[in-house]
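Field: COMPLEX_INPUT
Field: COMPONENT_COUNT = two
Field: RESIDUE_TOTAL = 990
Field: MODE = joint
Values follow.
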Amino acid sequence: MKLYRLLLRVYPRAFRERYAAEMERTLTRLMELQKQKGQPRRWRMWLGVSWDVVAGGVVARRKQFMARARLTKGPAANGQFRKAPLGSLGTDVRYALRTLARQPVFAVTAIITLALGIGANTAIFSVAYGLLLRPLPYPDPDQLVLVWSQNHGRGWQRTDVPLSDAWDWRTRTKAFEDLAVLGRSSPNLTGMERPERLEARTVTTNVLSVFGVQPMLGRGFATADGEPGAQPAAVLMHGFWERRFGGDASIIGRTITLDGESHTVIGVTPREFVFPYGSPDLFLPFRIDPATAPRTNHSHVAIARLAPGVTLERAQREVQEVSESLEREFPESNAGWSAHVVFLHADLVGDIGRQVSLVLMGAVGFVLLMACVNVANLLLARANGRRREVAIRAALGAGRGRMIRQLLTESLVLALAGAAIGVVLAFAGVTAIAASMPSDLPGVFHFAVDPPVLLFALALAVGATLVFGLVPAVRASAASAAELREDSRAGTGRRSRRLGGFLVIAQTALAVVLLVGGGVMTRGVAHMQRQDLGYQPSGVLTMRLTPPAAKYAGVTELNTFYDEVLERVRALPGVEAAGTIHTLPLAGSNSSNSYTVPGVVTPEGGYPSRMGYVSPGYFEAMSIRLVRGRPVTMEDRADAPPVAWVNEALVRRVFGPDDPIGRTLEMHGSVLTIVGIVPDMRERALLRPPEPSIYLPVAQQSARSRSLAIRTTSDPNALAAAVQRAIWEVDPDQPVYAVQAMTDLLDTSVSPFRLVATLMLIFALISLLLGAVGIYGVTSFAVVRRTHEIGIRVAMGAERRGVILLIVGEGMRRAAIGLVLGVGAALLLSRALVSLLVGVSATDPATFIVVIVALLIVTFLGAYLPARRAARLDPVRALGGAQL
Amino acid sequence: MKPAWFQILLSLADQELHGTAIMEEVLARTDGSIRLWPGTLYGSLAELTERGWIAEAEAPPGAPTEGGKRRFYAITPSGRGVLAEEAKRLASYVATAQSKRVLGPA
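Field: COMPLEX_OUTPUT
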């Protein structure tokens, strides 16, 4: 509404006074009505409103103008004014274009500078807009929330939920219109020409209606589809349907075989429907009574739609009440567990996404500010040359306000031209940025230079005009008749020099902040890639297998299968070692458990620990050095005594200086003997410090899906085909998926940070360039204005070196002030960056030193070049009034 | 006559309304297909008042003020005349279309 009020200023005042308040009320009501009818495209709404206001405003102004013209000049004068319905704007624009065309170098420099600033801002804004502001592609997306489990006692947040608890949140509260629960499964599709492991979501039958989606073909799940013993049904995602069934509409009613069980395809989702988490191929209903699901099984996602008028706080309160009563009813499973409601959008963006967007917006904001400072500087220099022109116009009766408006129009023309080029740059920028976005970014976000972004660019151009144009315009218009006297030097003294000095200081400070930001990020990313992970990712090939339960029923069958696969893989030429783990490091597992230690006082509920289930050969394949103890062997079978390997973090937490080898851990009733210690590893995330972890022989567990880690002697990807063939020798129907080098997996974790670092560095370099140009400009300008003074100095016998020192010294003094301010600001701001990155300190001295040296060099060059010219000055010509 | 004007005059034909109510009436009557944006609406109201086709009316007693003064408008006899003429003109077009069986069996 504030924006609308601003837009209304297009109208003449009389019209505004009469109608503005009612117009606002009508618009509010209109928007309400639109909203009730369904979700309007917000930007379209605004486009309509803007057009309406601007068109209406122009008509009203024109009418007013004609009425006035009729009053003052009589009807005869009408024709001559018809060309300029908006007063003198047209004249001003034409005059501005003429003036700028006369100084093409100035115009082009200013426009390119502004294009860089506005383009960078527009590109980053479209990313930030796509991430933070654009509504998610669901009806009424603001009502979609997620409910997560949390356990404060164990420090677990945003934990998956049990189906049974989630169903109680649904039935026992009134806050939700509806709540759906989703789990993951990976059925193997067989019975067609090529077996494939699919990505499925097992869901409660209301899932599509919670998202607000209607199937494009067939029907959605009915309640009966989710009852125990119901005929298995499946709803296909549009992409899977096209990929695997060629978009054949007759699929409805046919059956597909998943894990050996035939499922009837009942529906296909529309193309526009994007699933927020991962990209599943199909939905399958649970087919169990949610109340009977185990309350300890935290492995589902609960997504809900708030009932109309219900706030997040109220939903949180109601869910909390249910959680508390569940704690009383099922103390065994639910003690310590509570629930947390968050908006889907906020959850998808995450804290990091929000912070990164804001940091980048801040950085480009600085770039634009520097561009504005440079253009302001150019305008000031130019204003000086135009003093005579301005003075003549003033003498001929032009009012001050009128002249400021004329000068601002010139600035606006520059800014709009800059914005136009900037938008073109932004198109390229957004395409490049979107292409290097992390691959696990939810598909619900998309980035484009679209109307809201263009509106932003336009706003930037207008805002920038005021920032860089106002001061020069006000100053230039102050020229008085005194200017017209021959030889006048009025006004070239202290004040304008102080202004130039201020600009240099501001630019230096801004450049420091950007350079430090870029430097800290770049070093942080380099550190991420170099750090000791605890394992050696290069040379390792990975892939994942999920043998179906129909074929491999129990642990024995699974172990036999994997043993045989490993045996064949190890026999391949080029393979040094091979092993399996239930989930690879950095692959997103957060399986954890709690344990107690006999003889050590443990907190209630035990210590939390991260879990890894590994086969013989895994530590070797990942080059994980055993700190102490023995490796995993084939003897660590299901019937052998249970053993465990722990990492150094666990040893530090529990045993301190004591020797842990031979000690025991208790985990859910089973007693594990510690037989080895491994180093701390970065497993959950590159930036998360390693947590206490326990590794158990996978043969003593029942993990069905396991990942292979294969150390190769050469390029791991070259071996992929041979390994797959080896697996198919064991079972030709076994799908092999997620085939990639371990370094690629690592790269997925690093790439978002690298993207941010690259962008920051680009901005920093632009800022350095702008800074150099700015300092050069200010110094040259100052030298020109001091021609007379320098001439006198030289005539009085000053040496060339003295003159150079005088000018360079002044530049360096200002740079020094800018450096101090910039370093101070950078120290404050880089803390925000460091919160994104662990491993680099905010006061990383190397970065600061490099930045300071770079800026001193730039300042020196920027000041030295004009100074040298000044020192060559011929005093006779200088005093004779010639300018450099 | 501009379509917006016709719609406004039509809503005022049988009642006195304020601006927002006119917008709502038109939106409801045309099933959401004609949306009078505020600029169009108030621009037209100003123009129609100037032409003397509508006039500002006393707010009916008990009308909601909603925190500010609302201007109510009533159609004038000359406005009614213009409206009737326009409606007749449109009706004659429809009649032609019907006679040429553009609309299918009536």
